[in-house]
Amino acid sequence: MPPSPPSPVASQRIAEVLAQRILAGELAPGARIKQDELADELNTSRIPVREALRILESRGLVTLRANSGAWVATMSLHDLALTYQIREQIEPLLLRESLPHLAESDLDRMRGTQAEIEATSDVEEFMVLDREFHWSSYAGAQAPQLCLMVERLWDTTQHYRRAFARMAGTERAWIINAEHRLLIEAAAARDLDNASTVLTMHIRRTRLELSRHPELMS
After folding, report:
1. How does residue 7 score in pLDDT terms, banded at 50, 70 and 90?
2. pTM for this one?
3. What is the CA radius of gyration of the chain?
4. Is the sign of the CA dihedral 45, 47, 52, 54 positive or negative?
5. Is residue 188 within 8 Å of residue 129, measured between CB atoms?
6. Range of the domain at 157
7. Is residue 1 assigned to a domain?
8. What is the CATH number of the domain that holds 163?
């Protein structure tokens, strides 16, 4: 009798556990994921673990090598720059889709989150708040496929943004805060052109800063 297929619920749960560890920096790019140990830890068989790894491979977070194993995905400097160039093109589109439908509660969330960003010097807290800020601005978008594309781009660059934030410290906080405040103003005015321009510059500036630090890729 053939083995039962892995439970989609179990595989998805394992995928989310691993994704959170990768996004939190607990598993760094290039780290090997030991399937036997993970199965033992989560009290499951290797079958749903393998399926979970395939899910994460489709999200760009894991690299699977035939007859070898699984590793946290890595990026070259060229890959990182290209990913940011893609973000420059599609995130302003997502913002344009969102702003006409953005609720006042979403704007209030942007303002509140920005206040928290300005009050913190903790990198991990900043990473969470920065994501929350931008996704609050996209909350009005009725474009699930575009949201998934943008989420994947954020996820695959998370480690390198964290590494750069740690290296830069508070030196660049003022410009991030200034750009965020401009985004809030444009969003509140429903000024699609200005909001798109500010967001494009925000992403491009980060790309150019990252390109000057190839050591972050190691």
Report:
1. low
2. 0.89
3. 19
4. positive
5. no
6. 77-217
7. no
8. 1.20.120.530
Which of 72, 92, 116 finishes a domain? 72
| 203 vs 88: CA distance, rounded Å | 6
pLDDT digits (tens, 9 = 90+) for 14-55: 999 999 999 999 999 999 999 999 999 999 999 999 999 999
* Phi, then psi, of 209 in degrees rounded to 5: -65, -45
For residue 38, what is the domain's CATH number? 1.10.10.10
Which residue spans within the chain are E strands per DSSP? 32-33, 62-65, 69-72
Tens of pLDDT, residues 122-160: 999 999 999 999 999 999 999 999 999 999 999 999 999
The length of the chain is 218
As a whole number of angstroms, the distance between CA 125 and CA 118 comes to 11
Q: What is the pLDDT of residue 5?
A: 53
Closest by alpha carbon to 94, among 157, 152, 150? 150
Q: Is residue 94 part of a domain?
A: yes
DSSP state of 5: P
